[in-house]
Amino acid sequence: MALARLAPLASLACLACLVLLAGCADEGSPPRVPGGDARQGLRLVTQYQCGACHAIPGVQGAAGRAGPALDTIGRLSYIAGRIPNQPANMQHWLRAPHALKPGTEMPPMGLTEQEARHVAAFLYTLR
Ligand code: HEC
Prior knowledge:
Layout: H1 2-28, H2 38-47, E1 78-79, E2 83-84, H3 87-95, H4 97-100, H5 113-123
Antiparallel strand pairs: 1-2
Helix pairs in contact: 2-5, 3-5
The chain binds heme C.
């Protein structure tokens, strides 16, 4: 009889598992950048020649080695090893790296706010 009483508990536990799994799946998808268009971002990354310093998959000639390869930047927890990798931080980083990490060798690239949104959207496709 004890088993019969446990059954509802077990199904509750199952439900909890499913909810957790769903949560994980969600976390696994790339962060959305409101107003950001990844295709524009790809064009801008080419135009601004980020590839002079970074290896970037899908960007022709982007094989620079002065900066880290960006092939998994979309799923890294931190930008530049210490800044939580969230869309707002990424946009800020792209426009003013020194503001977030004084002394960094990444130069400010002169992106507008809107351009930074597009570039961030593109970077989050790299996983
Ligand atoms: C002159 C070389 C140079 C150029 C040009 C450059 N970067 Fe960087 N970038 C760096 C360096 C060096 C770092 C490492 C900074 C640090 O960790 O302090 C970096 C770091 C980054 C990071 C964080 C990477 C990580 O693994 O944490 C991103 C994202 C990034 N750059 C994107 C870009 C984009 C997009 C462009 C073009 C708009 C660009 N960079 C242009 C040198 C450059």
